[in-house]
Amino acid sequence: MGNEIKRISTPFTKDAVKSLKAGDIVNITGTIYTGRDAAHQRLVDTLKEGKALPFAIKDSIIYYVGPTPAKPGQVIGSAGPTTSYRMDDLTVPLLEQGLSGMIGKGARAEKVIAGMKEYGAVYFGAIGGAAALIASSIKKSTVIAYEDLGPEAIRELEVVDFPVIVVIDSEGNNMYDTEKIKYAR
Amino acid sequence: MRDIHVQEVTKAVKEMCISANYHLGKDVYKRLVLSEEREESPIGKEILNNIIKNADIATENEVPMCQDTGLVTLFIEIGQDVHFIGGDLNQAINEGVSQGYQEGYLRKSVVEDPLKRKNTGDNTPAVVHSSIVPGEQVRITVAPKGFGSENMCKLKMLKPSDGQKGVEDFVVEVVAIAGPNPCPPIVVGVGIGGTFEKAALLAKKAMLREVDDKNNNEYYAEMEERLLEKINNLGIGPQGLGGRATALTVKVEKYPTHIAGLPVAVAINCHASRHEERVL
């Protein structure tokens, strides 16, 4: 994409968060966690009950995805991002707990962006629909919570050079606002 | 009168569910390649390149292009001289969906009750639209559609005085609001006229037309061209990160309506626009 690829690894510390700017092309290596609609509801309910979350959320990255079932011999099925706004009402409590990165596709609510600025977090975009391509950067997948949710269960993923773009950075710069103007007629 | 065993329907539905999820339509593929060539945004170009690469990988490895393998919308045109034998046609259709989603390793994304939300486990039931036509053939179209794009569809009952401008403004507004969410570059289907539900159905059917297909009504062919230009002038671009390819194509279908009404439905599909058709 013209730009140099920035490489980050997990844990995704607040220093690393601050080093990334909207428009950066990033490859992520390390451990990330999957979570979408139903899992987010349970995570937030768990926090409300004052209980511990099923994984260490500080400096972590959550990927909004519900993969297809793995074929025999596959680590994971196709695994592209789902639309992020459905998690908007359930995101700020996780940012408060130290969540540093979210991977999804599509717009985020103002309150999420405000939370990202306050607590220090980055919103990454993965290419929606490029699920077979993205799956090739996932090397290991283990269900660690909410197995009953099937595709919505929380999985721990080991990824190598997982390709994303910084869409909204920790200062609130948002490519969805800044880029379309350049190509509008 | 021609007898068709419902097992034939099951088999066809099963195969189409799998195939539509593994293989990008040739017409869509061709248009994506063209869009990549023309894209002015470097990041947009790269995204389109990755989308094409993804389609190649999915075909080669026989895996789903997208993890959201959709809820199956199925259109079935039944020749009036056809007699189905061997069981219940609706059950046979859903049996095909169930087999396809199990055997094809497709994601089961259907919940039994929209509020209680328990997964049905086999992606059934499909949403089936049937119609009776002359002849003794059966035409089945399977369109598995993800909800990233489905959630962005809208319908509005306009006033007759809103006219062509009102219709076009609404279509562009719906696409602008959808922004990056439905996985642009999108396919847009517009249904104008009929009733509340007819407009939605027309919009869905419009999206099934071949990408290169031109409306055979000159007025609506021009509208399709104009809408495509207006939509691409929004600058939303691939994945909403800016660029010229916001939509791959816009298709419009119309139907007679009431003197007091002007229903308009806008259906949005993602860049894969998955569907397959077969005639039995």
Question: How does this structure look, described?
Answer:
The complex is a heterodimer of chains A (185) and B (280). With 185 residues, chain A is of the alpha/beta class. Chain A has a single domain, classed as Alpha-Beta Barrel (fumarase), CATH 3.20.130. Chain A has a five-stranded mixed β-barrel with strand order 2-3-4-5-7. In chain A, helix 1 links the parallel strand 1 and strand 2. The radius of gyration of chain A is 16 Å and the shape is globular. Chain B is an alpha/beta fold and 280 residues long. Chain B folds into two domains: 100 residues, Dihydrodipicolinate Reductase, domain 2; 131 residues, no CATH class. Chain B is 40% helix and 25% strand. Chain B contains eight helices and ten strands. In chain B, strands 4-2-5-10 form a four-stranded mixed beta sheet. In chain B, helix 6 packs parallel to helix 8. Chain B is globular. The mean pLDDT of chain B is 97. Chains A and B meet through helix 5, strand 7, helix 6 and helix 7 of A and helix 3 of B.
Multimeric organization = heterodimer
Mean pLDDT of chain A: 96
Largest sheet of chain A: 5 strands, mixed, barrel
Count of helical regions of chain B: 8
Mind telling me the C-alpha Rg of chain A?
A: 16 Å
Counting structural domains of chain A, the number is 1
Q: Describe the largest sheet of chain B.
A: 4 strands, mixed
Helix content of chain A: 10-25%
Compute the CA-based radius of gyration of chain B.
Answer: 19 Å
Shape of chain B: globular
Return the CATH architecture of chain A. Answer: Alpha-Beta Barrel
Which helices and strands occur, and which strands form pairs?
The complex is a heterodimer of chains A (185) and B (280).
Chain A: E1 5-9, H1 14-19, E2 25-34, H2 37-48, E3 61-63, H3 92-96, E4 101-104, H4 110-119, E5 122-125, H5 131-135, E6 138-145, E7 154-168, H6 175-178, H7 180-183
Parallel strand pairs in A: 1-2, 2-3, 3-4, 4-5
Antiparallel strand pairs in A: 2-7, 5-7, 6-7
Chain B: E1 2-5, H1 6-22, H2 26-38, H3 42-61, E2 71-79, E3 82-85, H4 89-103, E4 127-133, E5 138-145, H5 147-150, E6 154-158, H6 163-178, E7 186-194, H7 196-206, H8 218-232, E8 247-257, E9 262-269, E10 276-279
Helix pairs in contact in B: 1-4, 2-3, 6-8
